Amino acid sequence: MIKTTRWFFIALLFAGFFVSCNDEGSVGLDLLPNADGIGVFQTDTFTMRSLTIREDSLPSQLPPRFVLGEVMDPLFGKSQASIAYQLRLTNENNDLGQNVSVDSLILSLNMEGYYGDTTETLLIEVFELDAPIFRDSTAYTNRLPAFKPTPLASFQYTPRPSQSIPVNEPRINNSDTTFTYGPVLRIPMNTILATKLVNASGTADLQNNINFLNFFKGVYLRATRVGNGAGSTMYLTGVSARSGLFLYYKANGQRRRFDMLIANESARQNFFAFNYNGTTVGSVLGDSSTSIQETYVQAGGGVKTLLQMPYLRNLIQNHHVAINKVEIEFTQIPNSGDAPFSPPGRMFLLIADSLGKNASVLIPDFVEPYYNGNFSNGKYKFVITRHIQRLLQTNTTDFGLVLLPERSISAVSRVVLGSSNHPLYKPRMVITFTKLK
Question: pTM to 2 decimals?
Answer without folding.
Answer: 0.89
